[in-house]
């Protein structure tokens, strides 16, 4: 039986620079694709809660948008999300990617993360040096030593989120900083975000994967209708109607492609993933809309949930 004396449960925020592997780590920890992963940076725009369970603890992970210099209002809203998420956390996972050059990791970023973000919040910090598959054992040790000596986190460990190396040790490292409490969520629950959120994230992922240059960054995905009808009538598929919002007409043409071919290809890939995620058939309708400069407009950002 779980009692507050034997069980711990709390919030762990995952922070780091864009492309550090935060989403990959979250998906690996939960053994499920909850957060979108692409080789491009800044794919994560909103906070995603993933819930990890074992016999001794429940860790509610909060993924955050990557920390970077804000270029417009959307970036500022993303950084605001990161700041708010840090405040909610009992413990912080600071994800620092290893790099294969003379520095082993980005020292300048790590200094910025600690000095401008983490020291102000005064939360316990576990440093995770991710992408350690890119470094030798010796280099990993050197990097961890340099990090520990400079910023004195509660703990520092090297993992590879991509390959799953030492990811299980992270939960052990976090446990001492979680309050003793009963689980807040039932065991079968992997996230508090609704299905429609994951559906829009799947479309965003496909856009990031298929289109180049500024297109993914100028795009927002809005679910206009999510009609769950398959469960009641198995001859029907669930209907998902969705708008892809871009900033310019030229972007709309690129998204649609010649005779609709690009949109069709992207829609097919998204629908296949959605069906796998939801475990039921989906009819997906996509519309492309132009909303000039949506990333700079407060009202529109708000209506998109930022
Ligand atoms: N070699 C290596 N690559 C990794 C590892 N973890 C993540 N990656 C890659 O790094 C890229 C970025 O991963 P994400 O998980 O999307 O990174 P993120 O920090 O969530 O990115 P943002 O959405 O920009 O905040 C992807 O191409 C991943 O496959 C790792 O342990 N080793």
From TrEMBL:
Residues 42-46 are annotated as: G2. Residues 130-133 are annotated as: G4. PROSITE patterns: G_ERA (PS51713). Residues 16-23 are annotated as: G1. InterPro entries: G_ERA_dom, GTP-bd, GTPase_Era-like, KH_dom-like_a/b, KH_dom_type_2, KH_sf_prok-type, P-loop_NTPase, Small_GTP-bd. Residues 8-180 form the Era-type G domain. CDD domains: Era (cd04163), KH-II_Era (cd22534). The keyword Protein transport does not apply. It is found in: Cytoplasm; Cell membrane. Keywords: Cell membrane, Cytoplasm, GTP-binding, Membrane, Nucleotide-binding, Ribosome biogenesis, RNA-binding, rRNA-binding. The keyword Transferase does not apply. Pfam families: KH_2, MMR_HSR1. Residues 63-66 are annotated as: G3. Residues 159-161 are annotated as: G5. GTP binds at residues 16-23, 63-67, 130-133. PANTHER family: GTPASE ERA, GTPASE ERA, MITOCHONDRIAL. An essential GTPase that binds both GDP and GTP, with rapid nucleotide exchange. Plays a role in 16S rRNA processing and 30S ribosomal subunit biogenesis and possibly also in cell cycle regulation and energy metabolism. Belongs to the TRAFAC class TrmE-Era-EngA-EngB-Septin-like GTPase superfamily. Era GTPase family. Monomer. This is GTPase Era. It comes from Prosthecochloris ethylica. The lineage of its organism: Bacteria, Pseudomonadati, Chlorobiota, Chlorobiia, Chlorobiales.
């Amino acid at each position: 039986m779980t009692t507050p004396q034997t069980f711990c449960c709390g919030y762990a925020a995952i922070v780091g620079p864009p492309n550090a592997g935060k989403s990959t780590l979250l998906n690996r920890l939960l053994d499920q694709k909850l957060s979108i992963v692409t080789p491009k940076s800044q794919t994560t725009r909103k906070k995603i809660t993933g819930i990890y369970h074992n016999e001794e603890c429940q860790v509610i992970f909060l993924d955050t948008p990557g920390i970077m210099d804000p270029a417009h209002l959307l970036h500022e809203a993303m950084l605001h999300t990161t700041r708010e998420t840090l405040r909610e956390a009992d413990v912080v996972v600071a994800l620092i990617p290893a790099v294969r050059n003379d520095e082993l990791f980005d020292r300048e970023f790590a200094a910025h993360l600690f000095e401008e973000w983490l020291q102000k919040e005064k939360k316990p910090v576990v440093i995770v040096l991710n992408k350690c598959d890119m470094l030798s054992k010796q280099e990993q040790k050197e990097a961890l030593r340099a990090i520990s000596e400079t910023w004195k986190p509660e703990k520092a460990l090297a993992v590879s989120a991509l390959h799953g190396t030492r990811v299980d040790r992270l939960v052990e490292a976090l446990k001492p900083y979680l309050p003793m409490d009963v689980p807040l969520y039932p065991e079968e629950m992997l996230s508090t975000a609704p299905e429609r959120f994951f559906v829009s994230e799947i479309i965003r992922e496909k856009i990031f994967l298929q289109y180049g240059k500024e297109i993914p960054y100028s795009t927002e995905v809005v679910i206009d209708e999510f009609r769950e009808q398959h469960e009641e009538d198995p001859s029907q598929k669930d209907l998902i109607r969705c708008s892809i919002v871009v900033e310019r007409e030229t972007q709309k043409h690129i998204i649609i492609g010649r005779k609709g071919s690009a949109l069709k290809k992207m829609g097919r890939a998204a629908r296949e993933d959605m069906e796998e995620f939801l475990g039921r058939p989906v009819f997906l309708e996509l519309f492309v809309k132009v909303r000039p400069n949506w990333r700079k407009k407060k009202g529109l950002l708000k209506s998109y949930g930022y």
